Amino acid sequence: MKNIYSNIFTFNKKISKKAIKCLNNSNVVGLPTETVYGLGGNAYDKSSIKKIYYLKKRPKSNPLIIHYYNLDDAIKDVEINENFLKLFKKFCPGPITFILKKKKNSKIHELASAKLKTVAVRFPSHRAIRSILKEINFPLAMPSANRSTYVSPVSAKDVFDEFKNKVQIIVDGGNSKIGIESTVIDLTNDPQVLRPGIIGSKSIEKILNIKFKKSFKKNYNKSPGMMKKHYSPGIPVIINQKKHDKKSAFIYLGKRYKNKKDFFSLSINSNLKEAASNLYKIFRIIKKKGYKKIQISNIPKKSFGIAINDRIIKASKF
Ligand code: TXA
Ligand code: MG
């Protein structure tokens, strides 16, 4: 079914075929995943990769995540290890990305991995992206479908707002359930979480039977893309706020200011998982309403709140 936006199409078999044709022709496509929407292209093909970097205005030094249908496909490009297999078994397909060593004969284009000897590998679970990955003969290089440093999109309409008609097809697979990007874990040496997500450090420690050495904060510079400014809604964000300044949009947790103008709750029930899934959506709503600044109250730095704090701290480095 055609949408009012000429390049947004609801996911079905016919659209899937159209998207695959685009990808086979070295074009990029907006695609839904369970975390956030991505801008996908053939990871083996230079011209597809160049289009992704160009559209996102992403620095070439920041590598892309490579998305696979299954293990058999990924093994062609990366060296796997025991830790990887344990986490893969437990969480995949799902919202986790693994940094692994690139195989010498890997076909991933060097631009996609920013000429590094490692590759970020992910197995997304959303049925639309899985059905496409199953049909194509290459993995998808797929960063979040937003301009570099801005907020990730959590709906097809958000992708349209980022790129307008510069992408031929945006496949609409509904709102992203998780709403923030995958957990990124480096498994090339002692495991280290580089980007916190909904799969938390504690559950990873349990499965690997380890204790992480450092807090995730110290690992930022290990990942080329973990630059300080990121996830920006395009207006100043200030965190750990106690008092509304009477003009900003005020983001908080719970129901204290329910139905009050200028106040936006991440979760009425103070559920941190729900709060994480609403963060980017609320950033975009506030921006559209024309506010000039966002204040955010203190968000607990535990469980899913760790991922929320990671994103809002970076959003505040405007
Ligand atoms: O949930 C997600 O992961 C989404 C969906 C679309 O799959 N994708 C996503 O991609 O968030 P992107 O490009 O926005 O973020 C990828 C992050 C970047 O911070 C990048 O620096 C890091 O992963 N990364 C990629 N390859 C890496 C590598 N070889 N070593 C360390 N970090 C890497
Ligand atoms: Mg991103």
What's a quick, concise take on this entry?
The chain has 318 residues and is an alpha/beta fold.
How are the SSEs placed, and which strands pair?
Layout: E1 8-10, H1 13-24, E2 29-31, E3 38-42, H2 46-56, E4 65-67, H3 71-74, E5 78-79, H4 82-91, E6 96-102, E7 118-122, H5 127-135, E8 140-141, H6 156-163, E9 170-172, E10 183-186, E11 192-195, H7 201-208, E12 237-238, E13 249-252, E14 263-265, H8 272-289, E15 294-296, H9 305-315
Parallel strand pairs: 1-9, 4-7, 6-10, 12-15, 13-14, 13-15
Antiparallel strand pairs: 2-3, 3-8, 4-8, 5-6, 6-7, 10-11
Helix pairs in contact: 1-5
Bound molecules: threonylcarbamoyladenylate and magnesium ion.
The site of threonylcarbamoyladenylate has 28 residues, from strand 6 and strand 7.
Description:
With 318 residues, the protein is of the alpha/beta class. The chain has two domains: 8-208, DHBP synthase, CATH 3.90.870; 237-315, Threonylcarbamoyl-AMP synthase, C-terminal domain (Rossmann fold), CATH 3.40.50.11030. Helix content is 29%, strand content 17%. Strands 2, 3, 4, 5, 6, 7, 8, 10 and 11 form a nine-stranded mixed beta sheet that branches. Strands 12-15-13-14 form a four-stranded parallel beta sheet, with helices on one face. It has a two-stranded parallel sheet with strand order 1-9. Helix 1 (13-24) crosses helix 5 (127-135). The termini are far apart. The structure holds threonylcarbamoyladenylate and magnesium ion. Magnesium ion binds next to loops.
